[in-house]
Amino acid sequence: MVVVAQLVERWLVVPDVAGSSPVIHPMFVASSPVLSSTDLERDTTTESRIAPDVPWQTIVWNDPVNLMSYVAHVFRSYFGYSKPEAERLMLQVHHDGRSVVATGPREEMERHTEAMHEYGLWATVDRVS
Amino acid sequence: MRIEPEITGVLIELTPMERRLLSTLLTQYDELVHDQLDDSDLAADPALARLFPNAYPDDDEAAAEFRRYTRDGLADRKAANSGLISAALMASSDDERITVARDDAEHWLPALTDLRLVLAERLGIHRDDDPIPENELGDVYDWLAQLQGALVEALD
Lengths: 129, 156
Fold this sequence. Notes:
The complex is a heterodimer.
Chain A: H1 26-30, H2 37-41, H3 44-49, E1 56-61, H4 68-79, H5 83-96, E2 98-104, H6 106-118, E3 122-127
Antiparallel strand pairs in A: 1-2, 1-3
Helix pairs in contact in A: 4-5
Chain B: E1 2-5, E2 9-13, H1 16-32, H2 39-44, H3 46-51, H4 60-90, E3 98-101, H5 102-123, H6 136-155
Antiparallel strand pairs in B: 1-2, 2-3
């Protein structure tokens, strides 16, 4: 039961950042895959040696907001995974910080990523390394 | 709040105050996720950046292209999801239980998630071990989690 004194308060509005430079969310930067070890290993020379038909992947990243039950529910209802597989992937996101939830052609992986964004999950596209 | 699974969907019982709370949040959400978002909007508000995540964190060009092709459609669908909840609230009186068809309830879930994502940003919840502040807004965040959790359970 929530006790709310002032319903009119504007909770969701953008904080006043007028005049300041664009704010980059600190956590977003800190936990973004840019700095992960796998990405450090990948440089442009290896990139150019990868054949164009190498598959791509959709990766879902951990966040402190989404309920574990909801994440598993999304994996089941969108990808059609069985309950145990959806739970396994969800726990992998939770414990390892990320999970590859799909692999295949780039366009398809982008479609999945867009769908994950609609579900409010933090997803990215990457080449299979 | 009481959520009960039904054969064709879910029955949702909210107090008048809970209804007003949800409705207020959705109105603010609609203002935030409007249909003319551009890169500067996302750069200025980390909550918006979280609602439209960077799909290619290590490839600026691909990231920009992905944003260009997906953002408007995504914003439309996010607005449609939140609109479904608003419409259900408006179509029922304060003392009425809300009957939500299964397919519609599936669209409530992402809208509730987005509300929680924005609130988490405003509350400074960035990591798994960040505490939920013990204030009114923290209570709202908790309440949304209960609502969403109960809905997921009813739909599973």
